[in-house]
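dumping this here so i dont lose it
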């Protein structure tokens, strides 16, 4: 995810464990932000969300054995605040423009679908009798139950009045938009032939997503009136970039003209055979035998 001022990018990098790293474009420096030890379940840190002022990072982590949402200063100082204490796994995906609510999703045990949830972003306090992970404080607040609905990958509109998300409630994954915080006051389908991983343009006039063929698509969307207006989807280009898991692995520049993506390989094929090295032992002795035989 690009920082609000576009000078940095937060990304997941796997190096023995998955952690959040921050790249500074001007300085060309890569700095590790989180230091999570891999658990038995292999859960790490990721799905970063910048706060609007660019000072903090919201992320999900399995450091306590349960995937939960946390907050940490982007410069690595201070403590790590836990924003949820749910007994079910939760992931973070977006934040309101005023920095007060985080959108995410959770999956109940044995459920075949996920629900969009909203968590308040407040200074966390330690709950009496709790047992937080070292350096982690916990928040006693709970998500807004009345706004919970089936879906994942929720993304707030730049004016904070709407949230876009993907859902397979109709049998195929499509992109929808609901009002926020009263999600039951309306629902509009944006994609027409399948869609995943929505992202709003910073100016709020377009909504991007990947269609069923993984092509990056744009839809004009108006959100300034009492209801929204929706244009026709248009393919921007066929993406040949990596999607290593169901998260959204692209971001949009502030002017909406450039996209930051993960390139799979030099061939553009995510299934390309990785570069390998063959080690041959005692090759000099074998060479002498071959030469003596001539």
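and the seq i came up w/
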């Amino acid at each position: 995810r690009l920082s609000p001022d576009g000078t940095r990018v937060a990304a997941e990098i796997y190096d023995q464990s998955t952690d959040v790293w921050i790249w500074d474009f001007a300085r060309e420096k890569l700095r590790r932000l989180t230091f999570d030890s891999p658990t038995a379940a292999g859960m790490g840190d990721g799905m970063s969300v910048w706060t609007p002022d660019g000072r903090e990072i919201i992320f999900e982590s399995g450091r306590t054995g349960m995937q939960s949402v946390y907050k940490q200063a982007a410069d690595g100082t201070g403590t790590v605040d836990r924003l949820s204490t749910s007994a079910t796994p939760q992931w973070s995906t977006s934040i309101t423009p005023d920095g007060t609510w985080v959108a995410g999703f959770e999956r109940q045990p044995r459920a075949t679908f996920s629900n969009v949830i909203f968590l308040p972003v407040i200074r966390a306090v330690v709950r009496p009798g709790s047992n937080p992970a070292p350096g982690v404080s916990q928040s006693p607040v709970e998500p807004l139950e009345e706004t919970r609905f089936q879906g994942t990958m929720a993304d707030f509109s730049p004016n904070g009045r709407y949230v876009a998300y993907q859902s397979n409630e109709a049998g195929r994954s499509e992109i929808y938009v609901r009002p926020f915080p009263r999600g039951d006051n309306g629902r509009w389908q944006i994609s027409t032939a399948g869609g995943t991983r929505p992202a709003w343009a910073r100016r709020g006039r377009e909504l991007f997503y990947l269609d069923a063929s993984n092509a990056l698509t744009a839809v004009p969307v108006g959100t300034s009136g009492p209801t929204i207006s929706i244009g026709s989807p248009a393919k921007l280009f066929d993406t040949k970039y990596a999607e290593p898991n169901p998260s959204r692995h692209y971001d949009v520049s502030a002017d909406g003209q450039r996209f930051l993506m993960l390139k799979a390989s030099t061939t553009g094929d995510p299934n390309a055979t990785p570069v390998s090295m063959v080690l041959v032992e005692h090759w000099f002795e074998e060479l002498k035998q071959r030469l003596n035989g001539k």
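The chain has a mean pLDDT of 83.
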